[in-house]
Specification:
Layout lengths: L1 H89 L4 E8 L18 E8 L2 H13 L3 E11 L5 E9 L3
Keywords: Membrane, Transmembrane, Transmembrane helix
Length: 174
């Protein structure tokens, strides 16, 4: 019986030890698999966190710029429509406009600097086929009550019948 018990104990301990080592091996593979997955998720979370920070920074920047644009538009939208409409209705058929800038920029737009506009100014560029009608049109614009001064900034012949022009119109701040 001693021999049987010793043999049973030695075989049971070998079997038990083997079984425990087998369980540890399976545990290692399962843990390693979950550990790799967790590490990938941590890296993804770190990348997402960085992207979220960049997105929030860009969002605040866009909101600041949108606020600036909204402020400019709120301040001058009704006036600009009125001015442009008045100029367009007085425009003769012999003139063709190529550009109309209301409150043009004084400097290039730079990051982290305020936008600088030349307030109460309107710049009009285009092509004229009749210099007499062009002069009459300038006089009509000068007679408008909200116009302070009209300056011909550029006037030159492009071809035999066409001339390019640029006008600067100073507006009164009503």
């Amino acid at each position: 019986t001693n021999f049987k018990q010793q043999r049973f104990f030695s075989q049971f301990s070998m079997f038990g030890l083997g079984f425990v080592l087998f369980l540890l091996l399976i545990n290692f593979f399962v843990f390693n698999s979950y550990y790799s997955t967790v590490e990938e998720m941590k890296q993804t979370a770190a990348v997402n966190s960085n992207q979220k920070e960049k997105l929030l920074t860009l969002k605040t920047l866009v909101e600041q710029k949108q606020k600036t644009v909204d402020d400019i538009l709120k301040k001058s939208s009704s006036k600009s429509s009125y001015y442009i409409d008045a100029i367009a209705t007085s425009l003769p058929n012999t003139l063709q406009l190529s550009a109309l800038k209301y409150q043009p920029l004084t400097k290039r737009i730079k990051k982290n600097n305020p936008i600088q506009l030349k307030k109460e100014e309107l710049i009009i560029s285009g092509i004229s086929t009749d210099s007499d009608l062009f002069s009459d049109w300038i006089q009509k614009i000068e007679s408008l009550d909200w116009v302070v001064a009209v300056t011909v900034a550029d006037y030159g012949a492009v071809s035999k019948n066409n001339s390019e022009f640029t006008l600067k119109i100073e507006l009164s701040d009503e």
